[in-house]
Amino acid sequence: MSRTARQNGDAPEAVLVVGSGYGALKAAEDLSHGGIPVVWAARARHFLELPPGVESFPEWPADLSFQFRPLYLRVTRHPLVTPLTQARVESLVQANGGCEAELVQDPVYVDYDLCTGCGRCQEVCPLNDSDHPPLSRSPAYCPSRSLLMDKRTTSPCRQACPLGVNAQAYLALTAAGRYAEALGVIRRDNPLPGVCGYICSHPCESACRRAELDEPLAIRDIKRFLFDYEAEEGPAALPSPATPRRGLRVAVVGSGPAGLAAAHFLNQDGFDVTIFEALDQAGGMLRVGINAFRLPRPVLEAELAALVASGVALRTGQRVDSAQALLDQGFAAVLIASGTPTDLRLNLPGEDLAGVEHCVDFLARMNLGGAVAVGPRTLIIGGGNSAMDAARSALRLGAKQVTVLAIETEDHLPAAPQEVTEAREEGVVFRLGCAPIRIVGQERVEEVIFRAAHWEFPADAPPRIVFDADAEESLEADSVIVAISQRPNLADSPLGAELDLGRGGRLNVDPDQATSRERVFGAGDVVSGPSTVVQAMAAGRRAAAAIAARLADGTPWRDLAQAPRGVGQPEPIAEELPQQPRQRMAQRQPRLRKRDFAPVDLGLTTSQALEEARRCLQCATCCECLACEEACGPVAAIDHQRVGQRLTIAAPAVIWAEAGPPPLAKGPEPANLFRVDPAGYSADLMDVLMNASAAAGQAMARAAHLRAPAKPRPPAPALADDGRLGVFLCACNGSLAPEGVLERIRDLAGALPGVARSQIIFSACNPAGAEAIAEAVAEQRLSRVILASCVCCPLNFQCISCNDQRTRVRLHLFERLGLDRGRFEMINLRDHLQAQTHGEEEIVAWARSQLGAAWLRSRHLGALRRGATEMGKRVLILGGSQVGVSAARSLALQGLEVRLVHRAWPSGGELPGAIAQRALEGGLDPRIMVVEAAEIGGISGHLGDFAVRAKLDGRWRTWKTDVVCLTDDNLIELAMYAGATGLKKFYRYDFSFFNTPQIGVYRVMPVTLKRVDPYQAGAALAGEVATTAAKAYLQDHQLSPQVDPERCRGCGRCVEICPFEAVRLEENPAGGYTAVVQRHNCVGCGGCVGRCPVTALDVPYFSNQVLEEMAAARLTSEAC
Amino acid sequence: MADVNILGIACNWSPYCCYNAAGQAGLALPANFRLLRVMCIGRINQALILRAFEHGADGVIVLECEDADCRYGPGPEVGHTNVARVRQLLRYLGIGQERLVERTFQADQRDAFVAVIHDFAARIADLGPNPANPRQERVA
To answer: How many domains does chain B divide into?
Structure first.
């Protein structure tokens, strides 16, 4: 048909069902079982979640949700259904006779198809006991044990960090006392946690959301605590770098933060890195520019040692004069990270007087062990961190009076406030808002002359100094240290001559950090000008990524510039959360600390660090420490990197069962949009279901062209049987039993008679785990298998206690891998072992008992009934009411062969006047064969092969049909045997509205027409009919019983008890009666077996004998 | 507690759902309790219950759905008939009718299920071992 050839490209075609709850479930069930592909999208996190405000239904038992579990599993695991949770419809546009729907699904971090529900992830999650644990389970009635993960937008601290260090995660782990893991989280993104723990400018803290409540977290101090904590245990260690190595060498020029970071990440990725450092000691500005009282030397040494230990070669005292020479030596790439080691000059008169020094020169000499001295009155010019370092160093070198002269005002000083405070505490005096104009002295400096001034920042020009007053002021000084920033030294070196330099002698690079010279890159302050340690490291890491991408394929590690992940805003700050100031490190007193270069801050104590880490609000809920990914192990269900998906569906019909209106453009509502209004939920459950069924029926008529051709009956598997038994134990990712115990159980099973293989499977519901079972079955030629997992049976249907994982095991083993379910004995060991509370011996004893019973069962496994009923496409509708006509139209549209009898009455009955006078609605599909009137003699046969005797035009004839629908009330007696009251009860939880005791004969109950109009009722009926008539065959119930004619005495109790007419009495040759099971009608309950007083009825698969033996075995514990 | 055996015969639907949920929630059942699961309690004939006593069950508890909830219709009805009949027989046999009880559950009555089993186990413990002969054979 041309309708199948859609114009709109690749968009998959399916009926779109939107919303969660029972209505959507029922609609999806009808459609998928009617052979129509369905995309089911719900905003909820699972499909049974009811619309807001709806909690229960009056007049239904409290366990109603449990009763829906089989339906849920049948639908969500149906091959024609694409289930999407946390998905919403962005737009619905009419197109090509249907709707084009744009869907957006939030990222699903725990793969629904893989998760075993073992809960290991929850066990290791540092936030599991918090107010908002990131991992949770659905409510008990939801049959999937899969975990749900809540991950909000990446926390602000992490977004603020130029390196993207996951502060939230290491705070969470610290709060849980897991310090080594916390440090490991930092080292994923930052190879210098010690350096940064001491001196990072901590942009994370500026972004911290806790500031809205009281004060930001002391993130840096916690990092320092973690590093110090580790240092007490032993040397710092970086993660092992990648092996095998790539065989490519990279030279890094400069051992400052940018160079070290780049070297580390390249080394991690398998490059062989050599750092060239011009000075005799490595560390760049970390060593020469930052004082030991802020960054103790042992910290720097430890970090450098860790880097060298991880494989980076460090060559000090090696000035690089030519990048080309390095390339010629065989380095595949060169990274210039030589920083800004040259002081800027004031260019004022007197700057070259004796006693005037420049900051980096001064600090470098001091920090590299050279001779330095300052006069009693020292003046520092500049207001940045280097100026503070110089000022505080001067104090420590013996200056009696240290003054900082800076143009900025207090609020705008470039130095960190803490530095300024500490300097002031130590006695440093500030003269702010002043700019020097000359330095005066004879041979040595004597005084500095300055005027009031401020910075001006014109939009189109560099900042400039504007003087505010004409008056000159002066300060006497014996030493002056000029600390007004630095610049690169490339312009002064031959290396610079090879490269394109920009303003201020900075190295010009493109966005990929590449310089003008092929395979020569640049990063850090040499490119950007003076910045912070963390910014320089980030630049180094970016360069490393660029180099790796240039030299090898792909980008080796996460791109830092990636957009924040996660969906949704952080939890609001709870009102109950008390204000609590942040923890402060103990400090040495100013008068003591200014005497030496020992550290000023003493670090947080363990209890302080714990207390502080617990203040973290955990903005993103999930902190992404990744502990759960590791715990998930081979199951591999968790992936924190998953992103949401956007998809377009070409939907011939849309069923809307979501709270809120559909996102439609203005204008008339599309004819193919069917609403199952959640507002109706408060009324009655059956109303909801009936409306959903009607919507599904109408949608089905519009989507009939999507119905896949009915599949022919599969061949029955061969049944060779030599009793070779295999036992498989599902470890459920290590949660079934403690280590060692599982092995004992395996050996126990291996010792049972006839067991050829006893094996532990990491997870049976995981595709790979199921494949391992299938491989072992083939390899060992097993003909009987015991699977001990959480699965209770191998049958092809679900009960109310079934769940998704159990369903998946059977889908994998029997549907996908084609194993014979009749050869499997399954026991639910997992849920009753009580591994949490029981001791080892109790666990083993329970397992022994269960395995013994299973072993016994496997010895007596009887055959499952495997009969099938061929289905044709013939539908006979008796009664041309509005319902009948509507159903006939819908079924004809769906391609079924419909015969509609307008007026029908049972033999002996009369035609009611209303029907006799009724006119048949016109304009019927010519494919519908219409009979005006017929007397019906009776219905015999069964679903798929009914014979209906009808008298028309005075002659009796027999119509053969697959399905019969009775759509006028006067015909009900044809389907209802006398005393068939309580019909509702038989199908109470099937929610099939049109069934009669005779399967395959449908009727419309008067109450149905109170819920929906006749047209909708007809559509719903058609949908229901199609769920059987559209199939090629219907399988018999696997547990259908058999009658032993030798024992049956024809008492008829079985016939009496069966509500489905699945047992009938037939005359036997001896003149008596024998019961015969009508397999087409049987639902496998076994009621007749229990009722039989002479045990003539039995279920072969699970025989009376097996039950008795099992009972005996259960009672004699030593027997197994 | 005396050395007694308790066998539960459970319908696969509501009672098994309770049993299953109890296991998943880590609720302990008596160590001497064993469960035999059938598709519907209607599946059990009187012979099976008697056999259980013959094989040394000290108590048998038949766990069913509520009448209105039977997935198939006739299950609890058959169960009631069979249990009533076997209880009579147990009295005649001298085993005692109180060793056989039936209880109904809804699918969400996990805690009630656990409580009922513990109750029954305690009652049977009070009654002591099944006086029928096969027990001696089993022990021997």
So the answer is: 1
